[in-house]
Write a structure and sequence with these properties.
The structure holds two protein chains of two kinds. By secondary structure, chain A is mostly beta strands. In chain A, 0% of the residues lie in helices and 56% in strands. Helix content of chain B is 0%, strand content 46%. Classes of the chains: A mainly beta, B mainly beta.
Chain lengths: 124, 110
């Protein structure tokens, strides 16, 4: 059974750093892309970026480039999303999601599995 | 950048058919995926590539894509279908791809 299991909820102060995780199981972790998606309270889904754990190829949404860092450790089938200095506006639920890539058509496939979400609260 | 427009809300009585639209410039040239998100839960893929259903998704869920509008159709709506629904495409440029989500449509079952 494919599963993406995310780390637990975090409460942080502005200016603090944070790294949350997403562990994949039940499939070959290095053969699929892992994306991060933000959902602010009461709002819609926003794509942050995506990483291919096989070679750590990483793409960022222009809206999040420079604001976060996405990484992966394929030896433990885990992807990460990190901040160096949190702001109150980073308060949100963060989801990881899996996507395949169609090398014939050169397109990404849909997000077929999602993690349960990690709630990040940033407050002084 | 590419924009997907959804109605904020759609209401339907139980047993009726709900149609949730997703507008985008020449969206028919893209593969549209649809996600259902119930309160307090992660999104779930319900339709991909305009009209295909993942395993386990009821046949009541179907999709279409033509011109500038993609549509998610839910037949014989049930109370359990009440959720937010998001459309999504991949916007491909010369050197990269970006994910685009619609703003989401809240389906209310009256």
């Amino acid at each position: 059974e494919v599963q993406l299991v995310q780390s637990g909820a975090e409460v942080k102060k502005p200016g603090e750093s944070l790294k949350i995780s997403c562990r994949g199981s039940g499939y070959s972790f290095t053969n699929y892309w892992i994306a991060w998606v933000r959902q602010m309270p009461g709002k819609g889904l926003e794509w942050m970026g995506i990483i291919y754990p096989g070679d750590s190829d990483t793409r960022y949404s222009p809206s999040f480039q420079g604001q976060v860092t996405i990484s992966a450790d394929k030896s433990i089938s885990t992807a990460y999303l990190q901040w160096s200095s949190l702001k109150a506006s980073d308060t949100a639920m963060y989801y990881c999601a899996r996507a395949d890539y169609d090398y014939v058509w050169g397109t990404f496939r849909p997000f077929d599995y999602w993690g349960q979400g990690t709630l990040v609260t940033v407050s002084s | 950048s590419y924009v997907l427009t959804q109605p904020p809300s759609v209401s339907v009585a139980p047993g009726q058919t709900a149609r949730i639209t997703c507008g985008g410039n020449n969206i028919r040239s893209k593969s549209v995926h649809w996600y259902q998100q119930k309160p307090g839960q992660a999104p779930v893929l319900v339709v991909y590539d305009d009209r295909d259903r993942p395993s386990g998704i009821p046949e009541r869920f179907s999709g279409s894509n033509s011109g500038n509008t993609a549509t998610l159709t839910i037949s014989r709506v049930e109370a359990g279908d009440e959720a937010d629904y998001y459309c999504q495409v991949w916007e491909r440029s010369s050197d990269h791809s970006d994910v685009v989500f619609g703003g989401g449509a809240k389906l209310t079952v009256l």
